[in-house]
Amino acid sequence: MCRLLAYVGSPVLVADIVLWPARSIIKQSYDAKERKEDGSMHGHLSLGSLNGDGFGIGWYSDSIVAKATDPTPCVFTSVTPAWNNENLGRLSCKIVSPLVFAHVRAAMPGMPVSEQNCHPFQWGRYLFMHNGMVGGFMRIRRALLATLSDAAYDTVQSFHSDSAICFSIFLHHLPSLSVVQTPQALLQAMEATINTVLASQRAAGVTEVSLLNFVVSDGSTMLATRFIAGSEDEAPASLYYAEGSAFQRSPHAAASDGTAAGASDAYDGRGFDARQEPCSPTVNAATARHTSITGEGEYTLMYGAVGTRVVLVASEPITSSAAGDWVAVPRNTVLIVSHNKGGCLNLLSSPLGACCAKARREEVARCLEAATGAAEVASRSWSLQRPPRGEADSTPGSLWLDGKAKVVAGEEQRLSGHSGPVLCLALCGERLFSSSTDLTIKVWDMAGGQCLATLTGHNKPVQSLWVAREHLYSTAGRYLRVWNIAEPSFPCVRVLQLPRNGGALGALAVDANNHIYVAGQDSVVRGFRPESCAADTGGVNGCLKVATGFECWRLGSLEFVRVLRGHRGSILTLFAFNEARLLLSGGRDNLIRCWDMETLVCRRTLSGHKNDIMSIAGLAPAAGPTASVAAAGGDGSPLGRSSSMERSAALFFVSASMDGTVRLWTGQSWACLQIFTAAAVHAPMPFLSAAVSARYLAAGSPDGQVRIWGTAEELLAAPAGLLPCATGHGAHSAAADQPVSSDASLRDDCWRGAKFLASLLESLGAEIKLSRPIEDKHPIVLGRLGRNPDRPTICFYGHYDVQPAMEREWLTHPWEVAAVNGYLYGRGTSDNKGPILGFVYAVKEMQEAVGGELAFNVAFVFEGEEENGSKGFKEAVQTNLHWFEGTQLIVISNTLWVGEQVPCLTYGMRGMISASIEVKGPQRDLHSGNEGGVFNEPLNDLTKVLASLVDGSNRICIPGFLDRVRPNTLAPALARLDNSAEFSLSGYRDALGVPQLVRAASTSELLRARWCEPALSVVDVRLGSDDDNGGEIDPFYRFGPTRFSVIPHAVVGNVSVRFVPDQDAEELITALRQHVDTVFAGLGSSNTVTVRVKSVGDWWEADPESRLFKMAERAVAREWGRAPLFVREGGTMPVASALEKMLGAPALLVPLGQASDACHLANERISRTNLVRGKNVIRNLLEEIAAV
After folding, report:
1. pLDDT of res. 651
2. Any idea where the Glutamine amidotransferase type-2 domain is (predicted)?
3. Which among 101, 197, 336, 772 is least surrounded, fewest beta carbons within 10 Å?
4. For 755, how many CA atoms within 13 A lie in the half-sphere containing its CB?
5. For 642-703, where are the alpha helices, taking DSSP H only?
6. Higher confidence at residue 497 or residue 761?
7. What average pLDDT does this structure show over 130-154?
8. Cα–Cα distance measured from residue 318 to residue 240, given in angstroms and rounded to the nearest whole number
9. Which pairing describes strands 126-133 and 857-863: parallel, antiparallel, or unpaired?
10. How are beta strands 413-416 and 705-710 bridged, if at all?
11. Residue 1133 DSSP symbol
12. pLDDT tens-digit map of 1107-1156
């Protein structure tokens, strides 16, 4: 069997991975056993198992200039034995490369032995090698060649070699041979290569086993497969991988357990040196003879403080297996190694073949996209910035930054003792535990600043610490140790060991029952029972190695729940607030994400850090060594570091970053309160770990020191509004919150509104999901009650967000429901919380009446951005269409009656185009006294353009704007309104408060203009450009001072266009632009004009004669004892037409509120009678549908 080795990482001398390791692939090839033993030969030369079928190495240049001009690799092959090739010794001692392939060949019987057949193969920028065989190759060779394009056929380097032809098949499946491909494209080509081989075998009836261990690289990304086909019983060819910060010769003999590890990330104040340590034997080209023998020695993987910098893939481990560095690649799996920022590597594993379902492929693609996206995130050290003039704190020496976060420059105390970077910290009362790459754990007395003890026993850097009751848990390599911290000597009382080929332990959690959960390098989560070395479960394989998202598992059963994603690049740290049901994550995209663990949705993204976020920690328990520390969410939250906190405790947490800062945050307003930096050094000091308590903040540094700050004063001095209680699980009333979607400071209220509705739907027995496809937008609440495909599905839409309530005219508290004279007053009572509750309770009453399953399914969709543009709504629905399967009717209750007494049904609404007309002139504002009258002023030009849009009767003057208006759309409404006292011209005029109406010779003329004809309104004129201040409103425009002497350099006029059936929005936009350009050209102005379309919402219309509309009519009449009026509205509800198109079902608009409900205004209200009887109307409608 062939042997192969691939290395990716910091530039390395080829001899250090190919020749000198005591278990190099050259030594592994001895298993071929091609001749008898000869005891007269020296050392291993006496063995009778030397491989003589050839070898090869391939490498890429270490020169950045060379890579840019010539990205192709170099290859050296020979048919002589590798152990006896002096040229290999000479080259290996001179070549330094960041990516090396090595292959020792064992030819199949009958296959020519020639350099042409030796691996690795090279074409263009690609290197390829193979360990294994294609079953029945001679029978399918022609079929395989027939699949190749002409260009790929020309790349075949040996028609005798199954490996060479497989390489050409891979090249054939690439989108292009001349363009650098993404990791996703390389993965797709590899999958297609294997599928091509399997398809040819099936067509030819081949049953022989195929072993397809392929390794391919383009010089940046590397893929390695371990794949077997043809037999479920046979084992695939072996393949292992290892990762670390460096690979180098051991400076001393291996330890008793086979390990010899240390830190390779040397920090010198300027950064981490990622190059290999030169501890290889001194060899030059002239003395390279037999260096594979004389230079042999033990090598080891080193583990540093910051990320993976080296990845090796090999047929067999090339270091001591006892070290636990190597992980066996699972059967039918591909490894993808790609580069990340800062010289780090991403390592991802993905299943291949039939076990790789479509959903899994999509998951891998998303991981790859996120992992490669981190390379685009800029990273730098944080630097102190002085605040704008007038905003500095009066306290001497303090500065404001990042939303008035105070900067604390310089620590109060340092703890020195570690000889390597400090990787982990854990605070427990007055004790601090720290671990380092120096393989030790130190116990510190915080009060005295002294080291109480140094705990030894680990032979790898300690990667995680966890304090629970009287025990300290630590992981290093594949070992977990438990220390008794209640005893003065801190003895080790228990040792757990991961399987030998499982790699190192990377994560640790301990729950309230002392169950231990660990996640290994092999992507498996394992649980252990208390006082036992036996695993609670067989482990759960997460499959994906790179944590660009993280998977949630239920503690105890380790049942998979969901993948949470959103970060670009790897997630480096997790922290959970158990009682508050919050999880925090930090990653390589410099962001902190705050996850709600009840809904499994990201609530907030915190920015401010300028580099990787290495650690997040919350307030530590204050009860001393016996304090309880629990794994996150014992009832279903994901694994993560957390401290058990009283529900009344404030939510404070800290984040440590490579940018040289530690930030203190509050969980109520998500504000950064303070920024801590190290005392002045010649370069910012990165931070790798952090811990916080009510008295101390500790941060670990690469220089081996722990820096300490006091926090008690800062936490006590925090404003009262920043000291929240844990959120808990109490229900919030639907009206008490302030879910104003346009106000970023009220995001938590919007979240509480969404969670209230989710809980309400769950009380009905509905499935629920919160979806948020757009970052920083409020979630869409999805619900599903029943999934019987033989029953109709009714979809109900509503929105839980509201308008602000800043008007002084409010007679009651706008955020508390007040019952006054039969009306319920409060913001959102009519628009749209009241109608939502009416529909939900109509369903609830029907459930109670039938005592079981309803005769129909119900789909709920409630959005939280309707008052703010509905961004993300369409994406959420389209992504979750399976929640709406079988929808036959959409019910919306977000309109009003035309009057006060008679119920209505809405059968039509206009569409809307929001556009801006901007005129730009000089580069800056000018003084009207000094410069007025000598140039074309933008505001004068804009005024003339706006005046040309409509005439004195508000008729639109734009050519073509009145085309395609459908006639007679008012007829259904007039048939009932003519005999009703609900609407009159005088009453309507008085309600508007205008002295006179235009186009109001009759009710029908006014309603036609109001409901059935297009309209154009100038709704705002702003000084300045949309491009100024990032689109933000100039504060001087909003609040003063007066601008009577200032000529604005640019002005924007905002217009609202309403259009009707059967008009087309794009045609109207074109007509508007042409008109504005024509009028502006006629002015002869030197300024410029631009028309921008901000949003478009389509018109909507229902057929009053349709079967469903007739059902709604009967439902209203049954409750109110009279037929409803049919009305149109001049307003726009884009969601109605959007849902109809997406769900393929008609919509019904059933208004509950009266015309006087004052939606969006002060004293919004809804009649108690209307709310209750409106609920009954909905129930009647549902009963009508159930009876069909």
Report:
1. 80
2. 2-340
3. 772
4. 22
5. none
6. 761
7. 94
8. 10
9. unpaired
10. antiparallel
11. -
12. 999 999 999 999 999 999 999 999 999 999 999 999 999 999 999 999 99
Q: What residue type is assigned to position 267 of the chain?
A: Y
Q: In what order do the strands lie in the sheet with 492-497?
A: 462-468, 471-476, 479-484, 492-497
pLDDT tens track for 797-850:
999 999 999 999 999 999 999 989 899 999 999 999 999 999 999 999 999 998
Q: The pTM is what?
A: 0.69
Q: Are 956 and 1015 in contact (CB under 8 A)?
A: yes
If phi over 0 gives left and psi between -120 and 50 gives alpha, with beta otherwise, what is residue 256? alpha
In the numeric block, which tokens belong to residue 596?
């709600």
List the structure tokens of 471: 């025990």
3-state secondary structure 178-237: CCCCCHHHHHHHHHHHHHHHHHHHHHHCCCCCEEEEEEEECCCCEEEEECEECCCCCCCC
**Torsion angles phi and psi, residue 1026, rounded to 5:** -60, -20
SS3 488: coil
Residues 1028 and 1034: beta-carbon distance below 8 Å? yes
Residues 6+ apart with CB under 8 A from 677: 382, 384, 407, 408, 409, 410, 660, 661, 662, 684, 685
Rounded to an integer, what distance in angstroms lies between the CA atom of residue 309 and that of residue 319? 17
Strand, coil or helix: 933: coil
Residue predicted with more confidence, 557 or 644: 557
Q: Which two tokens stand for residue 513?
A: 């029952």
What is the token pair recorded at 480? 């977990």
Q: How many Å apart are CA 592 and CA 571, to the nearest integer?
A: 10
> Are residues 768 and 758 in contact, defined by beta-carbon separation less than 8 angstroms?
yes
Dist CA 1011 CA 601 (whole Å): 41
**Using an 8 Å Cβ cutoff, are 591 and 672 in contact?**
no
Tens-digit pLDDT profile for residues 1151-1173: 999 999 999 999 999 999 999 99
What is the C-alpha to C-alpha distance for residues 83 and 888, in angstroms, rounded to an integer?
75
Can you point out the beta strands (E) in 806-871?
818-820, 823-825, 857-863
Three-state DSSP class for residue 934: coil
Chain centroid to CA 737: 28
**Rounded Cα distance, 794 and 785, in Å:** 10
Average pLDDT, the chain: 82
pLDDT, mean of residues 861-867? 95
The percent of residues in the chain predicted with pLDDT above 90, rounded, is 50
> Distances from the Cα of 1067 to the Cαs of 514, 955, 1016, 1032, in angstroms?
68, 18, 15, 30
Cα 689 from Cα 698, distance rounded (Å): 8
> What CA–CA distance (Å, rounded) separates 209 from 198?
11
- Give the separation between CA 800 and CA 873, rounded to whole angstroms: 13
> What does each C-alpha distance from 118 to 153, 256, 728 come to in angstroms?
19, 39, 66
Q: Which residues form the catalytic set?
A: 801, 866
pLDDT at 597: 81
Which one has a higher pLDDT value, 130 or 27?
130
529 or 748, higher pLDDT: 748
